[in-house]
Amino acid sequence: MMRRYALLFSVMLAGCGGGMADLRQYVAEVQATPVPFTEAAPPALEIVGVPYLASSLRSPFRYQKVSLSEQEQTPAQDCPRPDLTRTKGALEAYAIDSFALKGILQDAQKKWALLQSGDGAIHTVGVGDFLGLYHGQVKAIGATGLVVAEWIPDAKGCWHSRETQLAMVIE
Description:
This is Type 4a pilus biogenesis lipoprotein PilP. There is one protein chain. This protein is of the alpha+beta class. It is 16% helix and 26% strand. The protein has helices at residues 2-16, 21-32; strands spanning 100-106, 111-116, 122-126, 130-131, 136-141, 145-153, 159-167. Strand 6 (145-153) and strand 7 form a beta hairpin.
């Protein structure tokens, strides 16, 4: 049986040999045909030299005082704002979108959410805990998600509250 396959394979290889002479002749003809070039060369650009006078510029090795042309705006006193004097917790070093909700725990009095941070660690949070970069505070924990109220600053020095929901992804 194996000899039949070997014989068949050698016959097929024998059929592949030769027949390249006409291809080689065609390639030689194509390469011998001159290619007309009708496009003119672009005109040469004139380069104008600019003298460099370093004496009129500041030294890159000296400290330069930066002066602000606009005075910092003081925030309006009637704007709502988060407690900026509060000590930040460990979960406030992560962005909200880096957390993944992995589960909800509940007993008779309280619910907790299991959050996985971007580095893979699992953290337990309850209502009132802080997380996220924008002074986020957990407002509610539901059966499949949690609501975080964040404080977003604007250009005028005021803060605006925004609710972000983290939903559990069931795989």
